[in-house]
Amino acid sequence: MRGILTFLYTGKLKITPENITSFLEVAHKFQLRDLITHCVNEFQSKVRNTNVIELLLIASEHNNKKLLRLCTETIAQNFEELSKYKDKDKIQLDELLNSEHSNLIIEIMQKMSEYVSPLKKRKNFDRFKEKDKKAKKAKIIM
Questions:
Q1: What is the rounded (10 degree) CA torsion for 35, 40, 46, 52?
Q2: Closest Cα partner for 12 from 26, 2, 22?
Q3: Contacts of 9 (CB under 8 A, 6+ apart)
Q4: Which residue has the higher pLDDT, 105 or 92?
Q5: How far apart are CA 73 and CA 60, in angstroms?
Q6: Which DSSP string corresponds to 49-85?
Q7: What is the rounded CA–CA span in Å between residue 48 and residue 51?
Q8: What is the pLDDT of residue 48?
Q9: What DSSP string runs through the chain?
Q10: How many CA within 13 A on the CB side of residue 65?
Q11: Per-domain residue ranges of the chain
Q12: Which of 5-9, 69-73, 112-116, 119-123 comes out lowest in average pLDDT?
């Protein structure tokens, strides 16, 4: 709470991956828009696989679209690593996927498709280039 009071008086706040979720919860509870904005902006550099799901749930609960977008992008980019992450004190990706948060799951899957599609296109393009090179070599040899 001391950190939030300091922010209210000075506009400065030391945010860490460990405290960002509690700051966001308090900011939303008391509708401290400047603090919410500050936390979301700081979040971009503080997100970790250890707190992204927790932040996603907070963003969903408070309908913070910017934070939701950042969380779903982070989860989509790190899905494989997150699926292996285990911490008994934190909600896990598999728990989220098996929960009633179907709207969040849909958003995550949509983000994942945005990341997979360009990779797939790139793979197909690389395969096409490789086949084209082989075809040109075959013509040169003939």
A1: 120
A2: 2
A3: none
A4: 105
A5: 14
A6: TTTHHHHHHHHHHTT-HHHHHHHHHHHHHTHHHHHH-
A7: 5
A8: 80
A9: -HHHHHHHHHS-----TTTHHHHHHHHHHTT-HHHHHHHHHHHHHH--TTTHHHHHHHHHHTT-HHHHHHHHHHHHHTHHHHHH---TTS--HHHHHTSS-HHHHHHHHHHHHHHHHHHHHHHHHHHHHHHHHHHHHHHHH-
A10: 0
A11: 2-141
A12: 119-123
Instruction: Give burial (CB, 10 Å; 0-12/13-18/19+) of 36.
Output: buried
**pLDDT single digits (tens) 94-113:** 777 777 777 888 888 888 88
Domain 2-141 sits in CATH at 3.30.710
Q: Read off the tokens for 72.
A: 């779903």
Q: What's the start-to-end Cα distance of the chain, in Å?
A: 78
The number of C-alpha atoms within 13 Å of 16 and in the hemisphere containing its C-beta is: 3
Taking the model in full, what pTM does it have? 0.61
26-51 residue pLDDT tens: 898 899 999 988 888 877 777 788 88
